[in-house]
Specification:
Layout lengths: L3 H10 L4 H14 L11 E2 L13 E4 L6 E6 L15 E9 L7 E9 L6 E6 L7 E8 L2 E2 L3 E4 L11 E6 L10 H8 L4 E4 L25 H12 L2 H9 L2 E3 L22 H18 L17 E5 L3 E5 L32 H13 L4 E5 L26 H13 L5 E5 L5 E6 L12 E5 L16 H7 L3 E5 L3 E7 L3 E9 L9 E10 L2 E6 L1
Parallel strand pairs: 1-4, 10-11, 11-12, 14-15, 15-16, 16-18
Antiparallel strand pairs: 2-3, 3-6, 4-5, 4-7, 7-8, 7-9, 10-20, 13-14, 17-18, 17-19, 20-21, 21-22, 22-23
Amino acid sequence: MKPLDSILSAIKNHGHLNRRLWLSYCSALAATPILGQSVSGSIVSQPKFGSDPFLLGVASGEPTPSGVVLWTRLAPKPLEPHGGMPRDLIEVSWVISEEESLGKIVKQGKALATPQLGHSVHIEVDGLKPGHWYYFQFRAGDAKSKVGRTRTMPALESLPSQLKFGFASCQHYEQGYFTAYEHMLKDSPDMVIHLGDYLYEGKGKEKLVRKHIGNEIDSLDDYRIRHSQYRLDPHLNQMHAACPWLVTWDDHEFDNNCAGSISEEKNVDPVNFLKRRANAYQAYYEMMPLRKRSLPQGPDMTLYRTSKFGRLAEFYVLDTRQYRTDQPNNDQSSPLNAAASHPSNSMLGSQQGRWLKSELVQSQSQWNCLAQQVMMGVNNVSRDESEKYSMDQWPGYLSERADLLSFMETRQVPNPVVITGDIHTNWVNDLRVDDRDSNQAVVATEFVGTSITSGGNGQAVSPFHDILKSRNPGLKYFNNQRGYVICTVTPETWRSDYRVMESVTSPQSKVSTAASFVIENGKPGASKA
C-alpha cells in the first residue's frame, strides 16, 4: 500500500480540505521516527533504574525458518507518559539460547532503545535452526528481563507432521479477566495468532470488572498507556513470553468501525482523524513483535504478509480495516441490496487484493489459511423474520467476496481455511461463492472465534441458535461464550477446538471444549468431531 493511498482516499471524501489534508499528512509523515537511522541524544550504556524496567515483559513474533523478532520495551513506570524513561538512548543487550538456563548461547547482541519509539526494542534475529525452540532474555544496566521462549518455523521444503496454534481476538480489559490466556498457555501452542481488537479505545467506565485509565485515547501517550495497561495483565504477559505471535489489528486498536480514512462518527475533522491514526499505529508498532517493514509512515502501516509453516500451512495475514471503502447503507445491518453488492466496495483495497491472489496461486502448502478480522460467512443475523446482514463484515462487500471465493475455487487453491475474530461469538461457516445457495459447492471453511472478554459472560445455548441455523445454509455451529480456538493441523486434517470460559468476570474461571470441528484434506467443509 503506497503511503499516499489513505490521504488520497480522504481527499476523495473531503475534497474541500485537500490542501489542509495534504499538509497534515506531510507533517505526520515527517514526524515519524525511522527505525535504525540517525538518532540524537546521549547513549547510556549502564543505565540505573529505580524500579524494574521490564514490567511489560518480553515477546517474540514473525518467525521464519531461520529467525524471529524478539521484543521488549523499557518502562519502569509504564502507566505514566514516556513510561518513566528519560530522553536518553539506552543500550540494551540480548541473548538467545537453546537452553532455558541460557547456558548455551547461540546469538547475542546490543541495540538502542530510543525515546522516539517509546524505548521499545525489536531485534530481528537470523541464522537460527529451522523448527527449533529457543529461549531469550534482555538486559539494561543491572536489570534483566524474564526469560522468553520462542521457536522458528520449519524448513520451507519440509512437510511437518503437526502444527498446533491458538487464535484469539477482542480482549476488552474492562469487561473481564484474561484468564483465557492462562488456559491457552497450558495448551502449549506452537504459536498464537491475534486477529484484532487487542485493546479498546474508550474512556474508563465505572461498575465494570476493571477500569481503563483515562478518557477515550487520542494522543501517542494515551495509546502507549492503554497498551501498557493491557500488557501488564499477567496472563497476557505470560502468553506473549511463551511462544511467537502473529498479530493484525481490527478497529479498536484505533477507532471503532473506522473504514480506511473515514470515521464511524459524523463531523470528525479528517485531519485530526489521520493524526490520531498515526498515533495509534505508532503505539501499536512499538508494542508488538513486528519487523521493520511494518514501521508506520505517518498514518499508514503495512501489516498484510505471509507466514509459512513448512509446506504444511501458509498463513495470509490480512488487514481488512485500513484499505476498505466506507461501509454501505450507513453501516446499518440491512438486506443484501444494491449498495451491499456494488462492485466498487472493497474490504482489501486493490493492492492488497492483488497481492493475496498472487500469493495464493503460488502456494505449495497443504493448507492455506486467511487470518483476518470480520466474518466472511454471509449470514442473516436477524432475530425475527426480516433480513439483516452486517455491513461492517463481508456481506457489505459482496462483489469482492464472491470474486475472491470464485478465484480460490477456479484456481484450485489447496484446502482454503479462514480464521476470523471480531464478533464475540463462535461460528463455523462453510463458505460458497453465494452462501445463500446451498446447491453451490463448498469452497472453504471459516472458523470464527469468540472474544477473550468482550461482551462479558456469555451463554452456551443462545435463544437465537435455532433461527440462525434454519436460515443460513452454511452455518454449522454457533455459540455465545467467551474463549479462544486451538487448531491442530496435520497433512491429513485440520481440527479446531472451541475452548470456552465458564466466566470472564471471575479470575479463577475454568475452561472446557464446547465443540470440535474437522476438515479433511481435499474435502471442503467442516464436520463435527
